[in-house]
Amino acid sequence: MERPIIGVTIGDPAGIGPEIVLKALSNLELYKLCKPLIIGDLKLLQQISKQLSLNLSFNVLVHPREAKGEAGTIEVLNIKNVDLMTLQIGKIAQEAGKAAVEYIENAVKYALAGEIDAIATAPINKESIRLAGSRHIGHTELIADLSGSNEPLTMFWVRGVRIFFLTRHLSLRKAIDEIKNSKIVRTVFVIDKLLKDIGIRKPRIAVAALNPHASDGGLVGDEEEVELIPAVKELQLKGINVIGPVPADSVFHQAFSGKYDAVLSLYHDQGHIAAKTVDFYGTVSATLGLPFIRTSVDHGTAFDIAGKGIADSKSMEEAIKAAVDLLSPKRKRK
User: Fold this and answer.
1) Are residues 53 and 198 in the same domain?
2) Burial 73-84 (b: 16+ CB within 10 A, else e)
3) What is the DSSP string of 97-159?
C-alpha cells in the first residue's frame, strides 16, 4: 500500500514548533511509514536547521502530491509568511499568530481536497492567534470551523488508552454546569461510532465520575445521581458497552491496565493530568469527527525554551505515527 502523505504544520514560528518538526523528521524511521510534508516557512526552517546543526536538505514542492517521502530530504510547501528580521523567538506576537493560522488554513484546504491524507500539527499560542484576529480559542475549534465540522471530539492517545473529553476549554465552574445527561448520551454515542471507525469492533467505554468516590451515593454531591447514572443506564439499554460513573482516582489506572478501550473525561484537566503524568511526551492529541484525520502534540509552544535547541520532539514523532495508525482502517476499507 502506498505510504500516506502527512501534512505537518510548524505551529507558532516563535515557539518550539519548527524545532520539534525538524527534529522529528530527522528520524528516518518515520519515512518507512509515511511521506511527511511540512507546511511552513522555508527560510525559517533553514535557519533553525543551521542553528541546530541538523544539516538537512530541503525540497520545495508546488503541489502536495509531488511528495516522494525520501528519507534525508525535507519536503516543504513554502508558505512565505515569516520576517526573520522582526520575528522574536519566545514572544507572543500578532505576526506569529497570523502565520500559525495560515499554516492550518493551508493544511485543511489540502486535506479537504484529498491532496494530503492527514494532518499533524505543532503547537500554536492562543494569545498570539487572538491578536491576529482569530475568534477561535485553539486548534480544534479553528479546524472544525474551516472544515465545517459540528461536533469534533478531542481524543488523547497514550499507551493504548484513548481519553475523550465531555468539555474542554471552560472554567471548572462552567464545565460542571455543562455535565448534563443529554450531553453525555450524545457524546458517548459519538465516541462509540468513532472508535468503531478506527477499527475497534466492540469498544469498552468508561465514564469518569465528577465527585470523590463517585459521590458515595449522594453524600458528596448529586451530579452522579442526577446526570451521570441515568445517562449510562440509557446508553446501556441502547446497546452501548459503557460503564460508570467510575471514580476518577481509579478509572484511568483501570484503563491503563487494559480494562477499557476509552475513558470519557468530564473536564479538561481530569483527563490531561492522567495522560501527561503517565507519559508527557508520548501523549498524542487527535481530533476525531472531522472529514480527515488530525493529530497533534499534547503540549504548548514552550516559549521559555524556544530557540535554545533543547525541545523534545518525541510527541511530534508520535503524532505523525498516530496519524498513520488512525488512517489505516480507513485506507483498508477503501
Assistant:
1) no
2) ebbbbbbebbee
3) HHHHHHHHHHHHHHHHTTSSSEEEE----HHHHHHTT---SSHHHHHHHHHT-SS-EEEEEET
Look-up: residue for cell 461536533?
A: 151
Residues 196 and 212 in one domain: yes
Query: Is there a single domain that holds both residue 302 and residue 189?
Result: no
In a domain, 67, yes or no: yes
Exposed/middle/buried for 310, CB within 10 Å: 0-12, 13-18, 19+?
exposed
pLDDT averaged per 10 residues, the chain (length 334): 94 96 95 97 96 92 94 95 95 96 97 97 94 86 89 87 90 92 94 88 95 86 92 96 95 95 95 90 88 92 94 94 85 49
Total of domains in the chain: 2
Q: Does 155 map to a domain? A: no
CATH of the domain at 308: 3.40.718.10
187, 154 contact by CB (below 8 A) = no
Residues whose CB is less than 8 angstroms from the CB of residue 63 and which lie 6 or more positions away in sequence, other chains included:
115
